[in-house]
Amino acid sequence: MPVVDASWQEWLSSNVARGCSIDSMIDAMVQAGFATEAARAEVHKAFGMNPADVGNSPAAATEAALVKAGPQTYQYDASPVARGNVIRAHDRDVRVLMRSERPQVIVFADVLSPDECNEMIERSRHRLKRSTTVNPDTGKEDVIRNRTSEGIWYQRGEDAFIEKMDRRISSLMNWPVENGEGLQILHYGTSGEYRPHFDYFPPDQAGSAVHTAQGGQRVATLVIYLNDVPDGGETIFPEAGISVAAVKGGAVYFRYMNGQHQLDPLTLHGGAPVLGGDKWIMTKWMRERAYG
Length: 292
Fold this sequence. Notes:
Elements: H1 6-18, H2 22-31, H3 36-46, H4 62-73, E1 86-89, E2 92-100, E3 104-109, H5 114-125, E4 129-130, E5 132-134, E6 141-143, E7 150-153, H6 160-173, E8 184-188, E9 194-197, H7 208-212, E10 218-225, E11 231-232, E12 235-237, E13 242-244, E14 251-255, E15 269-271, E16 274-276, E17 279-287
Antiparallel strand pairs: 1-2, 2-3, 3-14, 4-7, 5-6, 7-8, 8-17, 9-15, 10-14, 10-17, 11-16, 12-13, 12-15
Helix pairs in contact: 2-3
């Protein structure tokens, strides 16, 4: 049976800070070979709970409570993304395929050209490392024990090609380029997945203050698909009944902070298991204020 070593401790703390549910974290540890009771005890400990207090902590109900309260409490205001079926994004025309108002989700085509997708993959392929996350205690990037993906971060504007991507994405999201985190590339092999989670930092969870100290809260996400996935790998929004197929050059945008600084729990989302082939994505997170 696996041992809860330093990398597993980092995985636990980072997923607590990300807003993952207790059940999903227990399931992930069981799938990795832990006994159910051992996994439950470690996850409850990571949430600051007594392992015997199953289901009695507010943390255990965070996702369910937020989702249930969402439609009554979150006020949907105008999205910053431009109207129309074709948006001029810095140097490229991007087509709009679908818009959802609740939650605010937009599906795009042609965000990147096929050649740009290929270049992004090839320049990343040999630099992939285990997926990283911001340490909830120190704010530094740490390696986490992630069994389904590997990735790389690019510095914002680190060369001419990356700067062009940053500017195009910023224009499409209609948010200042300096408010963006660096682009992240992730690669998922067959069976790879990312269970439903929030991209914003839950304000009621320990560690979020470390994440938001620089740049403030995340406000919106753009996930760009760098290849066609033959089967599976969709971006799913389980509470909204939305599923977006991974199509090369396309993207899905979702916004979860409004002008009143409320957070939209209906943006709970995940990456469905890749059932055939592999999956490459590029992600941009935007913050409230200048980041980095």
